[in-house]
Amino acid sequence: LPESHGEPQAVTGYVGGAGHKYELHFDSSLQVGRVATVLVFLSDVYNGGELMFPWAKTTPNASWPEGVSGRGRPIKELHGVTKEPPIAPMCENSADPALKIAPRKGRAVLFFTHTPDLKRYSYRAMHAGCSPRVVDEDKWITQLFIKWHNWKKDEN
Description:
It is globular and about 45 Å long. A five-stranded antiparallel β-sheet has the order 2-8-4-6-5, with no helix packed on it. Strands 1-9-3-7 form a four-stranded antiparallel β-sheet, with no helix packed on it. By secondary structure, the protein is mainly beta. Helices cover about 5% and strands about 25% of the residues. The two termini are about 20 Å apart. It has one helix at about 90; strands at about 10-15, 20-25, 35-40, 50-55, 70, 100, 110, 125-130, 140-145.
């Protein structure tokens, strides 16, 4: 992938115990043109702070690393829903089936917002950032958004 297709890297911090979170969202639309996201955790958080994909479609795997759990909620629960549900109940319930990836320094996650034909068929790429629950456990991440075109041409 050419370097020109990556946006400038972004760094974001979430203060532990302050309720900082990022509600459900997609990282792109067809107008924005981001095809993939690379997210890297820059700090360890052991109480909350998970990257969560509520409707991911996974198969539980005994070889998943520590801090990765869930198989995804049934997508049919979104039928007829016009507003995304709040994330707090999913984040706070350790038995919730949403795919959750705990912040561990150096852990990288790559996910795609669109299929190769630039369509988004479902809510599987919708995700959220749970709040780190303990004071002094701040969550830091860096993100690289990858576009399917040279984003620098957009500036001219």
